[in-house]
Design a protein that fits this description.
The structure is a single chain. Helix 1 packs across helix 7. The strands form 3 sheets. Strands 8-9-10-7-1-11 form a 6-stranded mixed beta sheet, sandwiched between helices. The protein has a 6-stranded antiparallel barrel with strand order 12-15-14-13-16-17. Strands 3-4-5-2-6 form a 5-stranded antiparallel beta sheet, with helices on one face. It folds into 3 domains: about 10-25 and about 115-210, Gyrase A, domain 2, CATH 3.30.1360; about 30-115, Aminomethyltransferase beta-barrel domains (Alpha-Beta Plaits), CATH 3.30.70; about 255-330, Elongation Factor Tu (Ef-tu), domain 3, CATH 2.40.30.110. About 20% of the residues lie in helices and about 30% in strands. A hairpin with a 2-residue loop joins strand 4 (about 70-80) and strand 5. It has 8 helices and 17 strands. The radius of gyration is 20 Å and the shape is globular. By secondary structure, the protein is of the alpha+beta class.
Length: about 350
Protein backbone atom coordinates (compact mmCIF):
# COMPACT_ATOMS: atom_id res chain seq x y z
CA UNK A 1 0.00 0.00 0.00
CA UNK A 2 1.70 3.22 -1.12
CA UNK A 3 1.65 6.50 0.78
CA UNK A 4 -0.34 7.95 -2.12
CA UNK A 5 -1.54 7.14 -5.61
CA UNK A 6 -2.41 10.56 -7.03
CA UNK A 7 -2.18 12.80 -3.97
CA UNK A 8 -3.25 12.73 -0.32
CA UNK A 9 -5.70 15.65 -0.59
CA UNK A 10 -7.46 14.33 -3.71
CA UNK A 11 -7.66 10.81 -2.30
CA UNK A 12 -9.04 12.13 1.00
CA UNK A 13 -11.68 14.10 -0.92
CA UNK A 14 -12.60 11.03 -2.97
CA UNK A 15 -13.50 9.11 0.21
CA UNK A 16 -15.41 11.98 1.80
CA UNK A 17 -17.40 12.75 -1.38
CA UNK A 18 -17.50 9.51 -3.37
CA UNK A 19 -15.72 6.23 -2.59
CA UNK A 20 -12.23 4.97 -1.92
CA UNK A 21 -10.63 1.55 -2.18
CA UNK A 22 -7.95 0.52 0.33
CA UNK A 23 -5.73 -2.55 0.19
CA UNK A 24 -5.31 -3.22 3.92
CA UNK A 25 -4.12 -6.80 3.58
CA UNK A 26 -1.23 -5.97 5.91
CA UNK A 27 -3.55 -6.31 8.92
CA UNK A 28 -3.15 -9.40 11.09
CA UNK A 29 -5.78 -12.12 11.56
CA UNK A 30 -5.72 -14.47 14.54
CA UNK A 31 -8.17 -17.38 14.59
CA UNK A 32 -9.40 -18.79 17.92
CA UNK A 33 -11.38 -22.01 17.64
CA UNK A 34 -12.90 -24.58 19.96
CA UNK A 35 -15.64 -24.75 22.60
CA UNK A 36 -13.68 -22.36 24.83
CA UNK A 37 -12.97 -19.78 22.10
CA UNK A 38 -15.31 -17.08 23.39
CA UNK A 39 -14.12 -17.51 26.97
CA UNK A 40 -10.47 -17.25 25.93
CA UNK A 41 -10.95 -14.14 23.80
CA UNK A 42 -13.09 -12.56 26.53
CA UNK A 43 -10.21 -13.03 28.99
CA UNK A 44 -7.75 -11.28 26.67
CA UNK A 45 -9.77 -8.20 25.68
CA UNK A 46 -11.42 -5.38 27.61
CA UNK A 47 -14.80 -5.65 25.86
CA UNK A 48 -17.65 -8.03 26.65
CA UNK A 49 -17.32 -10.74 24.01
CA UNK A 50 -20.13 -12.70 25.66
CA UNK A 51 -22.59 -10.00 24.58
CA UNK A 52 -21.67 -10.42 20.90
CA UNK A 53 -23.80 -12.69 18.70
CA UNK A 54 -22.86 -14.69 15.60
CA UNK A 55 -22.25 -12.31 12.71
CA UNK A 56 -21.36 -9.39 14.95
CA UNK A 57 -18.02 -7.61 15.42
CA UNK A 58 -16.69 -5.79 18.48
CA UNK A 59 -14.12 -2.99 18.68
CA UNK A 60 -11.99 -3.54 21.76
CA UNK A 61 -8.39 -3.68 22.95
CA UNK A 62 -5.98 -6.09 24.55
CA UNK A 63 -4.04 -4.94 27.61
CA UNK A 64 -1.09 -6.29 29.52
CA UNK A 65 -1.14 -6.87 33.27
CA UNK A 66 -0.17 -3.20 33.81
CA UNK A 67 -3.37 -2.14 32.07
CA UNK A 68 -1.60 -0.53 29.12
CA UNK A 69 -2.55 -1.24 25.53
CA UNK A 70 -0.98 -4.09 23.58
CA UNK A 71 -3.21 -3.30 20.58
CA UNK A 72 -6.68 -2.20 19.60
CA UNK A 73 -8.61 -4.96 17.87
CA UNK A 74 -11.79 -5.93 16.12
CA UNK A 75 -13.21 -9.27 17.25
CA UNK A 76 -15.51 -11.08 14.79
CA UNK A 77 -17.75 -13.79 16.22
CA UNK A 78 -18.29 -16.23 13.37
CA UNK A 79 -19.74 -18.88 15.71
CA UNK A 80 -19.56 -19.73 19.40
CA UNK A 81 -16.50 -21.87 18.68
CA UNK A 82 -14.98 -19.71 15.91
CA UNK A 83 -13.67 -16.19 16.57
CA UNK A 84 -11.52 -14.05 14.29
CA UNK A 85 -9.37 -11.32 15.85
CA UNK A 86 -8.01 -8.59 13.56
CA UNK A 87 -4.99 -6.68 14.84
CA UNK A 88 -2.67 -4.01 13.52
CA UNK A 89 0.07 -5.17 11.17
CA UNK A 90 2.88 -3.91 13.39
CA UNK A 91 1.49 -5.93 16.30
CA UNK A 92 0.74 -9.17 14.47
CA UNK A 93 3.60 -11.16 16.04
CA UNK A 94 3.03 -9.66 19.50
CA UNK A 95 -0.70 -10.34 19.55
CA UNK A 96 -0.22 -13.84 18.15
CA UNK A 97 2.28 -14.58 20.96
CA UNK A 98 -0.06 -13.07 23.56
CA UNK A 99 -3.00 -15.22 22.46
CA UNK A 100 -0.87 -18.35 22.02
CA UNK A 101 0.47 -17.92 25.57
CA UNK A 102 -3.10 -18.34 26.82
CA UNK A 103 -4.05 -21.18 24.49
CA UNK A 104 -5.69 -24.15 26.18
CA UNK A 105 -7.11 -27.56 25.22
CA UNK A 106 -10.60 -26.23 24.49
CA UNK A 107 -9.43 -23.15 22.53
CA UNK A 108 -6.73 -23.28 19.86
CA UNK A 109 -5.01 -20.14 18.54
CA UNK A 110 -3.55 -19.75 15.05
CA UNK A 111 -1.98 -16.84 13.19
CA UNK A 112 -3.86 -17.08 9.89
CA UNK A 113 -2.85 -13.66 8.53
CA UNK A 114 -1.32 -15.03 5.34
CA UNK A 115 -4.63 -16.66 4.42
CA UNK A 116 -6.53 -13.37 4.24
CA UNK A 117 -6.48 -10.34 2.02
CA UNK A 118 -8.48 -7.33 3.20
CA UNK A 119 -9.99 -4.67 0.96
CA UNK A 120 -11.85 -1.67 2.40
CA UNK A 121 -14.49 0.16 0.37
CA UNK A 122 -15.37 3.45 2.09
CA UNK A 123 -17.39 6.55 1.32
CA UNK A 124 -20.94 7.73 0.59
CA UNK A 125 -20.96 5.89 -2.75
CA UNK A 126 -19.36 2.72 -1.35
CA UNK A 127 -22.47 0.59 -1.76
CA UNK A 128 -23.03 1.88 -5.29
CA UNK A 129 -19.55 0.61 -6.14
CA UNK A 130 -20.10 -2.70 -4.37
CA UNK A 131 -23.48 -3.34 -5.99
CA UNK A 132 -22.04 -2.57 -9.41
CA UNK A 133 -19.52 -5.34 -8.69
CA UNK A 134 -22.24 -7.81 -7.72
CA UNK A 135 -22.92 -7.32 -4.01
CA UNK A 136 -26.61 -8.11 -3.36
CA UNK A 137 -28.48 -4.80 -3.09
CA UNK A 138 -30.44 -5.82 -0.01
CA UNK A 139 -27.29 -5.78 2.13
CA UNK A 140 -27.14 -1.98 1.93
CA UNK A 141 -30.18 -1.83 4.19
CA UNK A 142 -29.92 -5.07 6.12
CA UNK A 143 -26.25 -5.25 7.10
CA UNK A 144 -25.92 -3.22 10.29
CA UNK A 145 -22.90 -1.41 11.65
CA UNK A 146 -20.32 -3.88 12.98
CA UNK A 147 -22.19 -6.81 11.42
CA UNK A 148 -20.78 -9.16 8.81
CA UNK A 149 -21.89 -11.88 6.41
CA UNK A 150 -20.63 -13.85 3.43
CA UNK A 151 -21.68 -12.51 0.04
CA UNK A 152 -20.42 -12.38 -3.57
CA UNK A 153 -18.36 -9.45 -4.84
CA UNK A 154 -16.88 -9.63 -8.34
CA UNK A 155 -17.99 -13.25 -8.49
CA UNK A 156 -15.93 -14.11 -5.41
CA UNK A 157 -17.41 -15.11 -2.05
CA UNK A 158 -16.15 -12.59 0.51
CA UNK A 159 -16.83 -11.91 4.14
CA UNK A 160 -18.42 -8.47 4.04
CA UNK A 161 -18.09 -6.51 7.30
CA UNK A 162 -19.66 -3.10 7.85
CA UNK A 163 -16.57 -1.71 9.53
CA UNK A 164 -13.94 0.83 8.56
CA UNK A 165 -11.35 3.38 9.64
CA UNK A 166 -12.42 6.55 7.83
CA UNK A 167 -15.51 7.98 9.52
CA UNK A 168 -17.56 7.11 6.43
CA UNK A 169 -20.00 4.31 5.68
CA UNK A 170 -18.62 1.28 3.90
CA UNK A 171 -17.31 -2.23 4.35
CA UNK A 172 -14.18 -4.29 4.67
CA UNK A 173 -13.94 -7.39 2.51
CA UNK A 174 -12.10 -10.50 3.70
CA UNK A 175 -11.08 -12.46 0.63
CA UNK A 176 -8.66 -15.20 -0.39
CA UNK A 177 -5.28 -13.61 -1.31
CA UNK A 178 -5.21 -15.34 -4.69
CA UNK A 179 -8.56 -13.80 -5.65
CA UNK A 180 -8.01 -10.35 -4.14
CA UNK A 181 -6.43 -8.77 -7.25
CA UNK A 182 -9.50 -9.75 -9.26
CA UNK A 183 -11.85 -8.24 -6.69
CA UNK A 184 -9.80 -5.04 -6.39
CA UNK A 185 -9.57 -4.60 -10.18
CA UNK A 186 -13.28 -5.16 -10.72
CA UNK A 187 -14.22 -2.73 -7.96
CA UNK A 188 -12.07 -0.10 -9.66
CA UNK A 189 -13.57 -0.86 -13.09
CA UNK A 190 -17.22 -1.17 -12.01
CA UNK A 191 -16.92 1.72 -9.60
CA UNK A 192 -15.55 4.19 -12.16
CA UNK A 193 -18.98 5.78 -12.82
CA UNK A 194 -19.22 6.54 -9.11
CA UNK A 195 -15.79 8.14 -8.88
CA UNK A 196 -14.06 5.38 -6.92
CA UNK A 197 -10.33 5.84 -6.40
CA UNK A 198 -7.52 3.75 -4.88
CA UNK A 199 -6.40 5.28 -1.59
CA UNK A 200 -2.99 5.21 0.06
CA UNK A 201 -1.74 5.35 3.62
CA UNK A 202 -1.47 9.15 3.64
CA UNK A 203 -5.19 9.76 3.16
CA UNK A 204 -6.01 6.82 5.41
CA UNK A 205 -4.24 8.75 8.17
CA UNK A 206 -5.94 12.10 7.53
CA UNK A 207 -9.35 10.43 7.30
CA UNK A 208 -8.99 8.53 10.57
CA UNK A 209 -7.61 11.62 12.35
CA UNK A 210 -10.65 13.70 11.36
CA UNK A 211 -12.85 10.89 12.74
CA UNK A 212 -10.71 10.76 15.93
CA UNK A 213 -9.81 7.12 15.44
CA UNK A 214 -6.67 6.17 17.32
CA UNK A 215 -3.51 5.01 15.58
CA UNK A 216 -1.45 2.43 17.44
CA UNK A 217 2.11 3.59 17.90
CA UNK A 218 1.01 7.23 17.93
CA UNK A 219 -2.06 7.81 20.12
CA UNK A 220 -2.03 4.51 21.98
CA UNK A 221 0.71 2.02 22.87
CA UNK A 222 2.14 0.17 25.85
CA UNK A 223 2.74 3.45 27.68
CA UNK A 224 -0.95 4.44 27.58
CA UNK A 225 -4.05 2.96 29.14
CA UNK A 226 -7.48 2.94 27.48
CA UNK A 227 -9.08 5.14 30.16
CA UNK A 228 -6.76 8.09 29.55
CA UNK A 229 -6.89 7.46 25.79
CA UNK A 230 -10.63 8.13 25.66
CA UNK A 231 -11.41 4.45 25.18
CA UNK A 232 -13.16 3.88 28.48
CA UNK A 233 -16.30 2.94 26.56
CA UNK A 234 -14.60 -0.25 25.33
CA UNK A 235 -13.48 -1.25 28.84
CA UNK A 236 -16.05 -3.33 30.71
CA UNK A 237 -14.77 -3.29 34.26
CA UNK A 238 -17.89 -5.17 35.38
CA UNK A 239 -16.59 -8.29 33.60
CA UNK A 240 -15.52 -11.05 36.02
CA UNK A 241 -11.96 -11.00 34.74
CA UNK A 242 -9.67 -9.88 31.93
CA UNK A 243 -5.94 -9.27 31.62
CA UNK A 244 -5.22 -5.80 33.00
CA UNK A 245 -8.48 -5.41 34.92
CA UNK A 246 -6.93 -4.91 38.37
CA UNK A 247 -4.54 -2.28 37.05
CA UNK A 248 -7.36 -0.39 35.35
CA UNK A 249 -9.51 -0.55 38.48
CA UNK A 250 -6.60 1.07 40.33
CA UNK A 251 -6.36 3.79 37.66
CA UNK A 252 -10.06 4.49 38.05
CA UNK A 253 -9.83 4.63 41.85
CA UNK A 254 -6.82 6.94 41.84
CA UNK A 255 -8.07 9.14 39.01
CA UNK A 256 -6.52 10.07 35.69
CA UNK A 257 -3.56 12.44 35.53
CA UNK A 258 -3.80 13.10 31.78
CA UNK A 259 -6.21 12.67 28.89
CA UNK A 260 -5.95 12.33 25.14
CA UNK A 261 -7.67 15.42 23.72
CA UNK A 262 -8.52 16.75 20.30
CA UNK A 263 -7.35 20.24 19.45
CA UNK A 264 -7.19 22.72 16.62
CA UNK A 265 -4.48 25.23 15.94
CA UNK A 266 -5.67 28.81 16.40
CA UNK A 267 -2.28 30.23 15.45
CA UNK A 268 -0.41 29.74 12.18
CA UNK A 269 1.27 26.38 12.54
CA UNK A 270 0.87 22.64 12.04
CA UNK A 271 1.08 20.22 14.95
CA UNK A 272 2.97 17.00 14.23
CA UNK A 273 3.56 13.75 16.09
CA UNK A 274 6.04 14.29 18.92
CA UNK A 275 5.70 18.07 19.21
CA UNK A 276 5.60 19.25 22.86
CA UNK A 277 2.39 20.77 24.23
CA UNK A 278 2.92 23.81 26.44
CA UNK A 279 0.99 25.41 29.30
CA UNK A 280 0.38 29.16 29.67
CA UNK A 281 3.86 29.62 31.14
CA UNK A 282 5.47 27.89 28.18
CA UNK A 283 6.41 24.76 30.12
CA UNK A 284 6.07 21.36 28.37
CA UNK A 285 3.10 19.49 29.86
CA UNK A 286 2.19 16.99 27.15
CA UNK A 287 2.87 15.74 23.67
CA UNK A 288 1.12 15.75 20.31
CA UNK A 289 0.45 12.16 19.22
CA UNK A 290 -1.14 12.85 15.81
CA UNK A 291 -1.54 16.04 13.85
CA UNK A 292 -1.70 17.73 10.50
CA UNK A 293 -3.88 19.77 8.15
CA UNK A 294 -7.50 18.62 7.87
CA UNK A 295 -8.47 18.55 4.18
CA UNK A 296 -12.18 18.52 5.04
CA UNK A 297 -12.15 21.28 7.65
CA UNK A 298 -9.44 23.49 6.19
CA UNK A 299 -7.58 23.86 9.48
CA UNK A 300 -4.78 22.16 11.35
CA UNK A 301 -5.92 19.61 13.94
CA UNK A 302 -4.31 17.19 16.31
CA UNK A 303 -4.53 14.74 19.18
CA UNK A 304 -2.35 14.84 22.25
CA UNK A 305 -2.05 14.04 25.94
CA UNK A 306 -2.60 16.94 28.33
CA UNK A 307 -2.92 17.09 32.14
CA UNK A 308 -6.53 16.65 33.25
CA UNK A 309 -6.60 20.29 34.39
CA UNK A 310 -5.98 21.40 30.79
CA UNK A 311 -8.17 18.82 29.07
CA UNK A 312 -11.59 20.51 29.08
CA UNK A 313 -13.09 21.65 25.78
CA UNK A 314 -12.32 25.34 25.29
CA UNK A 315 -8.98 25.26 27.13
CA UNK A 316 -6.16 27.20 25.47
CA UNK A 317 -2.58 25.99 25.36
CA UNK A 318 0.30 26.07 22.86
CA UNK A 319 2.19 23.68 20.63
CA UNK A 320 5.95 23.89 20.29
CA UNK A 321 6.28 23.86 16.50
CA UNK A 322 10.02 23.66 15.93
CA UNK A 323 10.83 26.19 18.61
CA UNK A 324 7.83 28.46 18.15
CA UNK A 325 4.90 28.42 20.59
CA UNK A 326 1.74 28.34 18.44
CA UNK A 327 -1.67 28.83 20.03
CA UNK A 328 -4.09 25.90 20.13
CA UNK A 329 -7.50 25.12 21.59
CA UNK A 330 -9.01 21.89 22.99
CA UNK A 331 -12.12 21.08 20.93
CA UNK A 332 -14.89 18.51 20.89
CA UNK A 333 -14.23 15.39 18.84
CA UNK A 334 -14.67 13.75 16.42
CA UNK A 335 -13.50 16.65 14.30
CA UNK A 336 -15.62 15.35 11.43
CA UNK A 337 -18.86 13.38 11.56
CA UNK A 338 -20.74 12.28 8.48
CA UNK A 339 -24.32 13.40 7.98
CA UNK A 340 -26.98 11.22 9.59
CA UNK A 341 -28.59 10.57 6.21
CA UNK A 342 -25.38 8.90 5.07
CA UNK A 343 -25.15 6.47 8.00
CA UNK A 344 -25.88 2.79 7.63
CA UNK A 345 -28.20 0.92 9.98
CA UNK A 346 -26.96 0.49 13.53
Amino acid sequence: MPIQYTGIASEHQAVRERAGLFDVSHMGQIEVRGPGALELVDLLVTGDVRAVVDGQALYTCACNERGTILDDLIVYRRASADVLVVCNASNRAKIARHFLAHQRPDASVRDASDEYALIAVQGPRAFDVLEAAGLPAELRGSLGSFRFTDAPVAGVTCTVARTGYTGEDGVELFVSPGLAPRVFAELIERGAPFGVAPIGLGARDTLRLEARLSLYGNDIDETTNPLEAGLGWIVKLEKPAFVGKEALLAVKREGLTRKLVGFEMTGRGVARHGYPLLDAAGAPVGVCTSGGPSPTLGKSIGLGYLPVALSAVGTSFAVDCRGKAIAALVVKTPFYKRKASMKGPQ
